[in-house]
Design brief:
Layout (H helix, E strand, L loop, with lengths): L2 H20 L6 H14 L1 H9 L3 H11 L4 H21 L3 H20 L8
Helix pairs in contact: 1-2, 2-3, 3-4, 5-6
Length: 122
């Protein structure tokens, strides 16, 4: 993979991660992790900025060192999943699609809640 492609993908996933902060159906952390991965291959400057960022950097460091998600992030993510599920319930008429969405939301929520919280020292 060329540095240019990695850089373009890093910024693309960063935009999606930032949008995910405000849009309930779009996950933030997976896109942030992809941003960090591509930034490490495409732009040392962007990679360093991500890890130095007061909010985004903590999420990345907690995940990288402990595979941990903060309680605040878990609560926000689960609330966003609930909001997304509620919106889908009122908008989607296909029972099978709605069932699939609900199962996916439950799986994602269960995974998030099951992750450890960062240690106080980390």
């Amino acid at each position: 993979m060329t540095r240019l492609v990695a850089l373009i993908l890093a910024y693309f996933f960063l935009v999606l991660a930032i949008a995910g902060i405000f849009l309930p159906a779009l996950p933030t952390v997976p896109f942030l992790l992809l941003t960090a991965w591509f930034a490490a291959r495409g732009s040392e400057r962007l990679h360093n900025w991500l890890y130095a960022h007061p909010h985004l950097g903590k999420l990345l460091i907690d995940w990288e060192h402990e595979k941990a998600i903060s309680r605040t992030s878990k609560v926000l993510a689960v609330l966003m999943l609930i909001i997304s599920g509620t919106i889908m319930y009122h908008r989607v008429e296909n029972t099978w699609l709605l069932t699939g969405i609900v199962v996916l939301i439950i799986v994602i929520g269960t995974y998030l809640v099951s992750r450890p919280e960062p240690s106080k020292n980390g």
